[in-house]
Amino acid sequence: MSESNQRDFRLPKPTPGTMFVIGIMIPITLFLIVQLFNNPSTFFRTFVQSMALGSVYALIALGFVLIFKASQVVNFSQGALAMCGALFLSFLVADGHIPFTTIRNPLMDLPGPEWLGWFLSLFVALFFAALLGLVIERITIRPMVGEPIFAVAVITLGLEIVLRTFATDAVKIQFRSLEIPWGNQTFSLFGATLNWSYIAMMITAGIAFVAVYLFYKTRTGISMRAVAHDQEAAMAQGINVGRVFAIAWGAGAVLATLGGIFSTQPPVKQIGAVEPDTALVAFRALPAVILGGLDSVQGALVGGLLIGAAEIYAGQYLAGETAWLGAGYPVIIPYFVMIIGLIVRPYGLFGTPEVRRV
Amino acid sequence: MFLRPNLYTSYEAETHIFPTWTKKVLAALSIAVLFLMPFSLPVINQLPLIRFLGDSSWLRVMSTAFIFAIAALGLNILTGLAGQISLGHAFFMGVGAYTGAVVGGQETASVLGWGFPIWVWLPAAGIVAAAVGLIIAPVAVRLRGLYLAIVTLGLVFIGIHMSNTSWGRRIAGDPGLGRDFPNYDVRIWREEEPLVSLSTASQWLWFDVTAGQKRFLFLAALMVVFAVVAKNIARSRTGRALQAIRDRDIAAEVMGVNEFRYKLIAFGISSFFAGVAGALYAGLAGKMPATQFSLFLSIEFIAILLIGGIGTVTGVLMGTFFVELSPKMVEEFTRWLSQRTDEAGAIGIFADLLLSSGPGDFGPISIATQTPGWPLNVFDWNIVLYGVLIIVFLIFEPLGLFGIWIKFRNYWKRWPFSY
């Protein structure tokens, strides 16, 4: 056996960045272990909360990743899409009519339990959100195929402005209720008080990731992966790239809507209503995307959960320092985690490094 | 070479700021008009649009546009020349604004202020912002494309949050109202009576000059200085190195351009421009909360670059004035139109179709400013318009206003031939 065939089993030499992260992680881990034995029920509650928040971030991050993989664009209008989607649901269930019309929502008059009508309306809202995503993609993104990525990304920034202005000012959403069936109700587990919304978030994120995983095995999914790999080569193979774009944007809008709806629920917020700040949830999920890697589905999941955990644990155990850190400090923890993560891995944990050629 | 405007006999000649006599004369004239604009002078008054823009109600808008031009020129060095997409320009403006406030502002019970004169706080604002830029640059240099955009976007959120902490409030004041910023009065040191007061009306030479006109002149002069500096950076060794990095970074490194060093320089200069602009912006407003330095402001600069024409000083200036003046243009136009809804003829019908005076009336623009909901009022339409402009320019004219101007010029250059 020649020497070149032997694998090198030595660990790579740690860079200063890696040492820095290990240096930060050791005291944090020790502190958390102490807290675990100190007060197990608080720790458990915090853990479930962090997984729930992480699921919301992962959902939104998945939307970013799907769109990025298809069209190489970071969709900055994801927050506006989240708000619009949540708004559609509010139209359907709180106002009781189909969006943009005065036709009464027939699902609200169905016999059976009330939550059945809500769930069916949710799917109608997701359908409208997907439609919005498709329209946006067709009008603004499709003409830009082959243009610089920067230009397309800035177009989505423009979209964000337009959609948010329409959603907040034309419709004037000041706390539009979403009538979520489980509301802010809680239950008890291992001495910790938990919200039903935590469970809903985790289940939804689980379904979404399994669905994307299974979808990537289908014929359309394979064509999506081919487009993500090399657009021109995929075109040469007869793959309809426009259709792939459309699917990605539709799916991205649906995921954003789910994220938008969950962002009105604990542990994110307690209000259960759409408001102008709902759109900000996408900007809070951006660190998760970047930490996981812009083009990696498993990166979205891991990044989302990590960022969610960092935010919730910091909120729980640094609460004594609020004066110095400022009210609402957990919201900016994700950005610090993102920057530290990028020092070590400039393409995120699971991102593909860009191959640089002259 | 007379009558041979495109013939250059040396590289030096080609890199002149104004290579031809026509351009030299035009530039001198437009600078003269710029400075005489706010005054009621015989010849200037006759120029179309100019008198209108020099009017006192427009002075503030124009002054803001000058400040935004300085910041946009800074972003142009980073994004236009070096190709580094930054959404954190508002953050650096904020750093400059609060450095200016601490160094030049008055101390009160709740906020810091050292009360130094403008020739200390204005450069200090730029230098501290540049220093912060240089601290962040080593992280940023490792990142490419949209990763960098998102990290710099994070800076904006971190910056706004920092103003809300216990120590941040000592600098930024109340989160809702903000703090007082120093005005532009020129003092030698900390004396009571300013050497040159830019916040009161007085007589300069033979003219009665109001405070607004003084600020206008001061900011116009600063903008011209910064535009010349930006242009000179662009055509110097540094500018060429930055453009080489933008176009192909590995090729630039092969040619001996130190990528790390030049990206650091780009971050530093761009942050310096932003810091100065931020301090001036805050000084013009007098009092503002830290939430003003938001993501929206960053996007505004990106919009300015893209609408004007990225990578060119002229284009950036055009873009700034277009983006900054058009909202007020639209407002004035709507007001003008609203007085003509009842008139007979085309204008009346047009106005009636466009404007809505109350519930039940057809028209997308609401005249009432307070009533929320559809139809939107003109301020909301301005925001929508601005988003739409970004999209439309990127799809249809990626070179921006500068590209339109080049096309227009080239058409008339070879007129009446089409090619």
Instruction: Describe the sheet with the most strands of chain B.
Output: 3 strands, parallel
Tell me what portion of residues of chain B adopts beta-strand conformation.
Answer: under 5%
Arithmetic mean of pLDDT of chain B:
85
In which order are the strands of the major sheet of chain A placed?
Answer: 1-4
Tally of discrete structural domains of chain B: 2
Q: Identify the biggest protein-protein contact and residues per side.
A: A-B, 52 and 50 residues
Radius of gyration of chain B: 23 Å
Strands in their spatial order, largest beta sheet of chain B: 5-6-7
Overall shape of chain A: it is globular
Shape of chain B: globular
Distance from N terminus to C terminus of chain B (CA atoms, Å) equals: 24 Å
Given as residue ranges, the uncertain stretches of chain B (5+ residues, pLDDT < 50) are none
- The total of beta strands of chain A comes to 4
Cα gyration radius of chain A (Å): 22 Å
| Beta-strand share of residues of chain A | under 5%
Discrete helix count of chain B: 18
Low-confidence stretches of chain A: none
- Our count of helices of chain A gives 13
Please give a quick description of this structure.
Chain A has helices at residues 16-38, 40-71, 78-95, 114-141, 149-170, 196-215, 219-229, 231-236, 241-262, 280-292, 297-317, 322-325, 333-344; strands spanning 176-177, 186-189, 192-195, 273-274. By secondary structure, chain A is mostly helical.
Kindly describe this structure:
The complex is a heterodimer of chains A (358) and B (419). Chain A is mainly alpha-helical and 358 residues long. Chain A has a domain of 228 residues. In chain A, 65% of the residues lie in helices and 3% in strands. Chain A contains 13 helices and four strands. In chain A, a hairpin with a 2-residue loop joins strand 2 and strand 3. The two termini of chain A are 36 Å apart. The model of chain A has no long low-confidence stretch (mean pLDDT 84). With 419 residues, chain B is mainly alpha-helical. Helices cover 65% and strands 4% of the residues of chain B. In chain B, strand 2 and strand 3 form a beta hairpin. The longest helix of chain B is centred in the middle third of the chain and has 27 residues. The interface between A and B is large, with 52 and 50 residues.
